[in-house]
Design goal:
Strand order of the largest sheet: 12-13-14-15
Order of helices and strands: HHEEEEEHHEEEHHEEEHHEEEEEE
Helix content: 25-40%
Radius of gyration: 23 Å
Structural class: alpha+beta
């Protein structure tokens, strides 16, 4: 009985929230029912988290309980008119947006073909409170004359970090993305922290440019251990990687090494410095797990660990 009571309580809460957000929105009964049902389903599926699109606007609904055990949520808005921005950036016909929003509300993922004939996937992650878009097929990424890449990069940084970073840091990271796109054929990446890498892939078509944003696990703490870095040195090293800089360090065997992040290969690369006192031709490569794409740090002897620390999958021998 308690489970049924909880289900009824969630549905009642969902109806109240939808009615409040869409007040004056003239929803059809079937549209209201779809939103209510999706909200309840997501709360039970995503551990109390949910996301809905009302028109072009995403909303997030974290579920909490009052001191007396009643369910409660305070909706928060995602990026303003996000679907409209996606339609412009990815050359999607605006008439497709109602169907895209409906797909997202039903299953948190939607597929649409843009005006250039490219299949696009739009998705939302209720647990993380974010939205993203990516192509479902390879798209050529030439550097087009006249395109303001710094403006594109700045939008990426603002969409990702919002007001969490200052204007100066936004400018520095945007400049880093722009330089990476030019150096790595439209690929760029940043480490949000020691555990998460975020990649920004530039796609260009006849009517403009767009960016696909994806994530993968990153175990930078393991890399820092290889470098014998102190905990208070981690932020500075992370900053250097995000600015596209190469880090020089000496390993436990006394070999001078150069380490940098390759966003195209989506892995850390570590080569022996030409100025190293050692004549060894040793080359250590930070590879990615073939199963989950997590970055793998070499062990003290330079070899990859036998299994991935994230998923436990057996790893291949580093080149």
């Amino acid at each position: 009985m308690q489970l049924k009571f909880e289900s009824r309580a969630l549905r009642q809460l969902a109806e109240e929230v939808i009615d409040k957000i869409t007040e004056g929105g003239d929803l059809f009964p079937s549209e209201r029912e779809e939103l209510v049902t999706s909200l309840v389903r997501q709360w039970t599926t995503y551990d109390g988290q949910a996301a809905l699109f009302i028109g072009e606007q995403p909303y997030f609904f974290p579920l909490v309980h009052t001191p007396l055990g009643r369910p409660h949520t305070t909706p928060s808005q995602g990026p303003r008119d996000w679907l409209g921005i996606v339609a412009t950036d990815w050359n999607i016909d605006p008439e497709e947006l109602p169907d895209v929003a409906s797909q997202l509300n039903r299953g948190q993922s939607a597929e649409v073909v843009n005006r250039d004939g490219v299949s696009i996937r739009v998705w939302t992650n209720p647990s993380e409170g974010r939205c993203a878009v990516e192509p479902l097929e390879p798209v050529q990424t030439p550097q087009t004359p006249g395109v303001d890449y710094l403006k594109l990069a700045t939008r990426c940084i603002v969409d990702r970090f919002g007001n969490d970073i200052c204007e100066e840091e936004t400018d520095q990271l945007a400049t880093s993305l722009m330089k990476q796109w030019k150096k790595f054929d439209g690929h760029a990446g940043l480490f949000q922290d020691e555990t998460l890498a975020v990649y920004f892939t530039l796609h260009e078509h006849a009517n403009g440019s767009n960016i696909a944003v994806t994530e993968q696990p990153a175990e930078l703490n393991a890399f820092l251990d290889v470098m014998d870095a102190l905990p208070d040195e981690a932020p500075a090293l992370l900053a250097r990687l995000n600015l596209g800089q190469t880090i020089t360090f000496r390993n436990a065997q006394g070999v001078d090494l150069l380490m940098w992040h390759d966003p195209k290969q989506r892995r850390m690369i570590c080569n022996q410095s030409r100025t190293s006192a050692s004549n060894s031709s040793r080359r250590s490569l930070f590879a990615s797990c073939q199963n989950c794409s997590a970055l793998l740090a070499p062990q003290a002897d330079g070899a990859l660990p036998p299994t991935c620390p994230i998923c436990g999958c057996a790893t291949k021998t580093a080149p």
